[in-house]
Task: inverse folding
């Protein structure tokens, strides 16, 4: 039975990856390591908690001794590393927290894997999950490919870029078998309401202003989170060692157009008059260092591994809205307590 470590499995994307691996691979023992920061929530994976091939471990990847002991104890065959500080706005307020988790935390996992797997890399794999934000910002034209030079602009993207470089360096220097994927913006169920889509769904439900940064013309490429989890499964099993794959939705939206689509869908779901939610749109001060445009060329994963998104944006957004409306208690739980302080500091 293979032992697989997934880090950050109580977070947004990690919870969908854990669910997929636990349910699709009963012959794997899945260990979910998560520090349960503000972004980690065991409710996200409550449905697989009792599965015989699943174990949750609460722990911090920044703690090197703890990570070394964990690898000694369990002798993992594979690692899918998703644990991270993931929000750009928080990285502007507290960059060091991002260096600790995203850079040092990744280093600790690399060192532990290198030590445990030494001289025996057969069947082993270190999979680092990263972001398209490492490539910086595009102008009106062009797409990020796997060979686009790194050019990070925010402390978040700089910390992820750094971790990507270390993973690659461990591959080149020590022969560590790794794969890296750089994915575009995800959306879907279990997304913490500090990011654009879940924050705006939450605010529309509660008739609160929708704070659009700057002129709203910033462009992102959006992917439904379950399609990302499917891509991660594919790359983990069929990707080539020492390779990078870009993952994207073939789905670019200017923020303001996305927000208007969201408002229209929410009006329908909430039985509000057409145009009601759009009245909540409020233009606010721009994010410093705001990247103009991200867009992914996902042709490599498409050609080599046959992956493509399974849902359109309209379908994915509708499923997302339905999930939030059906899980208002989840939303209430995560937006109580510290969330209020964060929101006050960020927006009021
Ligand atoms: P998230 O913030 O929702 O979840 C992160 C998880 O990591 C949480 O469960 C948190 O408790 C855990 N964590 C944080 N610090 C930790 C530490 N020191 N030790 C152990 N666990 C810790 O993030 P997400 O959006 O699910 O992103 C997951 C990964 O995917 C990240 O590496 C991120 O860079 C990458 N990514 C995210 C997106 C996106 O749109 N959300 C897109 C591309 C790539
Ligand atoms: P976000 O969800 O934070 O993802 P990222 O910054 O990683 O792309 O933001 C997506 C886009 O939405 C980005 O251009 C910033 C913008 N945005 C707003 O206009 N208002 C908000 O309140 C938030 C959180 C984001």
Result:
């Amino acid at each position: 039975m293979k032992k697989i470590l997934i880090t950050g499995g109580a977070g947004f994307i990690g919870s969908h990856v854990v669910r997929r691996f636990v349910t699709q691979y009963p012959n794997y023992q899945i260990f979910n390591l998560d520090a349960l920061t503000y972004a980690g929530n065991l409710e996200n994976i409550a449905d697989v908690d009792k599965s015989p091939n699943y174990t949750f471990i609460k722990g911090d990847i920044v703690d090197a001794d703890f990570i070394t002991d964990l690898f000694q104890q369990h002798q993992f065959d594979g690692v899918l590393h998703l644990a991270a500080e993931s929000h750009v706005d928080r990285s502007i307020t507290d960059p060091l927290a991002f260096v600790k988790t995203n850079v040092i935390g990744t280093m600790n996992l690399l060192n532990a894997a290198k030590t445990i797997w030494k001289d025996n890399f057969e069947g082993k794999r270190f999979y680092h999950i990263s972001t398209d934000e490492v490539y910086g910002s595009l102008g009106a034209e062009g797409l990020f490919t796997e060979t686009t030079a790194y050019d990070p602009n925010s402390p978040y993207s700089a910390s992820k870029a750094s971790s990507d470089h270390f993973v690659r360096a461990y591959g080149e220097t020590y022969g560590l078998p790794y794969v890296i994927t750089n994915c575009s913006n995800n959306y879907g169920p279990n997304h913490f309401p500090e990011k654009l889509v879940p924050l705006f769904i939450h605010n529309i439900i509660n008739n609160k202003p929708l704070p659009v940064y700057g002129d709203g013309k910033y462009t992102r490429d959006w992917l439904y989170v379950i399609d990302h989890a499917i891509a991660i499964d594919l790359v983990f099993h069929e990707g080539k060692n020492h390779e990078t794959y870009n993952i994207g939705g073939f789905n670019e939206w200017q923020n303001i157009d996305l927000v208007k689509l969201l408002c229209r869908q929410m009006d329908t779901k909430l039985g509000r008059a057409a145009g009601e939610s759009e009245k909540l749109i409020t233009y606010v001060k721009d994010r410093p260092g705001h990247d103009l445009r991200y867009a992914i060329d996902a042709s490599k994963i498409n050609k080599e591994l046959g992956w493509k998104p399974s849902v359109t944006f309209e379908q994915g957004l509708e499923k997302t809205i339905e999930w939030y409306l059906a899980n208002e208690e989840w939303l209430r739980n995560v937006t109580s307590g510290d969330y209020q302080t964060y929101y006050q500091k960020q927006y009021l």
